[in-house]
Amino acid sequence: MKKTFVLLSLASLLAITGCGKAEEKKEDTTPEGDTPATPGTIDDLDPKDGDHYGGVEQSGTVGLSYTLTQYLNNDKWENGYKVTGYEGSNPNVVIPSTFNKLPVVEIDDRAFQNNLVIESLTLGKNIRNIGDYAFSRTFNMTKVNIERGNPYLVIEDGLVYHVEKEGKTEVSRTLYFGEAGRYVSFDTYAKKITKLAFGCFGNFENLIYLRMSLDLVPTYPNSIQGKENHLYYLFNYSSSTSQYRIDKMKSAFVPHLSTLVLGGDTVSAVPSYFCQYLYSLTSVVLEEGITAVNIYSFAHCTRLRNVEFPSTMEYINGTSFAYTDDLYRLYFKKTTNKLYFYTYSSSYGVFYNKDRNWAMYLVFEDKTSNISFDANSLKFDPDKGSTASTLSEKTYQDYLDINPTRAFSEIPPDPASWFYHL
User: Fold this and answer.
1) Residue 160 to residue 121: CA distance in whole angstroms
2) What is the sign, positive or negative, of the torsion defined by CA atoms of 146, 149, 153, 156?
3) What is the CB neighbour count within 10 angstroms for residue 222?
4) Counting Cβ atoms within 10 Å, is residue 156 exposed (0-12), middle (13-18) or buried (19+)?
5) How far apart, in whole angstroms, are the C-alpha atoms of residue 359 and residue 376?
6) Which residues make Cβ contacts (< 8 Å) with residue 366, sequence separation at least 6?
7) Which residues pair with 104 in a beta bridge?
């Protein structure tokens, strides 16, 4: 009996020791600092977010809806599926590579718009196109992955792009959308973006600073052009009613954006209605190359305080700053161009605002005669005759006399410059 007990104990000890060695050996085969998989067939792309690429094909999440579609593959139309929505409760959503033995190639317009269930998203390797506003306002979606082997999409810094290439050379990069909650500052120049999809900033609810090229601003068809601001297209858009207007939304689409810097190469004029009703905006800087500001471009930006104009500026249209209740200082860099202030419909001035009766300053780096004004272009209200319409040259000492108690957090006119006091 003793022998049996001893033998059994030895056998048990050997078994336990063997398991321990096996497990130890398994751990040793995993190299330290193992890096995640890199993209499969995206030639020569070295994404910064390597951990966003998974190597295992997964089945689609329950609750996804699909519809048949056709896509062009090597100049031949073929059948596939597109995802049209999600009604599931799983926060970790996987868009599969295939469904019913056909490739899943597309995500439809607004397929996931306003969905607050999703926390992470995996895009299958056959997804080649993502529709307008597909992931706009999915504010809890903080992690996005792309299945390894997808040759159409790339992700960098939490931003999902469609990349067009000629051979191995990248020719364009379209921003589709980004992970939620990531950005408080964004620069389209620094990201080397060549195209912006509608709704691509739809998850940028924390955005405070935006620098962008006007060349990237998308526009809708003429049937609804001018009814809402253009910047809104990049954040969120709803066409639920034919009478939809941006003012109904009261700028809820971007509640914290305070500083906007605009440049442009081929587009040199700020479009009409560009960011009207952007209530959070306090500062605007127009970069060199911008020549014009159009009607209602910044109208109803009620917290806008300071605007800086480039030396290339040529004209400012009537109502471009209408109802900017808090506008205080407009600074113009030295220019050799003819700078003209227009009226709109012969009577509506640049700063049209019937309720305004306080000071505003137009500051110029140098005194120049190349400035012209329409008769009513500087009137807040043309119906009030000369009230709030006079333009008089002032000095730096005048500024101090007019504003003896104003805090100098507000940038005053430079002593070497001259300015107008309205």
Assistant:
1) 11
2) positive
3) 7
4) middle
5) 17
6) 334, 417, 418
7) 81
Structure tokens at 12: 């048990």
For residues 188 and 265, the answer to whether their CB atoms sit within 8 Å is no
What are the tokens at 79? Answer: 């059948």
**Tokens encoding 278:** 């952007």
What's the distance, CA 230 to chain centroid? 12
Question: In what helix (H) or strand (E) does residue 240 lie, and over which residues does it extend?
Answer: none
Q: Which element (helix H / strand E) includes 418? A: strand 418-421
pTM of the predicted model as reported, rounded to 2 decimal places: 0.76
**79 alpha carbon, distance to own chain's centre:** 33
Query: Could you read off the pLDDT tens digit of each residue along the chain, which spans 422 residues?
Result: 444 444 444 444 444 444 444 444 334 333 333 333 333 332 333 333 444 555 456 689 999 999 999 999 888 999 999 999 999 999 999 999 999 999 999 999 999 999 999 999 999 999 999 999 999 989 999 999 999 999 999 999 999 999 988 888 888 899 999 999 899 999 999 998 999 998 899 889 899 999 999 988 876 544 344 445 577 778 876 554 333 333 444 445 678 889 999 998 888 999 888 888 888 899 999 999 999 999 989 998 989 999 999 999 999 998 999 988 888 888 888 877 888 888 887 778 888 887 766 667 777 776 656 777 777 777 776 665 434 444 455 554 454 455 544 433 344 445 444 445 44
**Phi, psi (rounded to 5 degrees) for 7:** -60, -45
| Cα gap 314→309, rounded to integer Å | 10
Q: Which of 132, 140, 141, 159 is nearest to 238 (CA)?
A: 132
Q: What SS3 class is residue 294?
A: coil
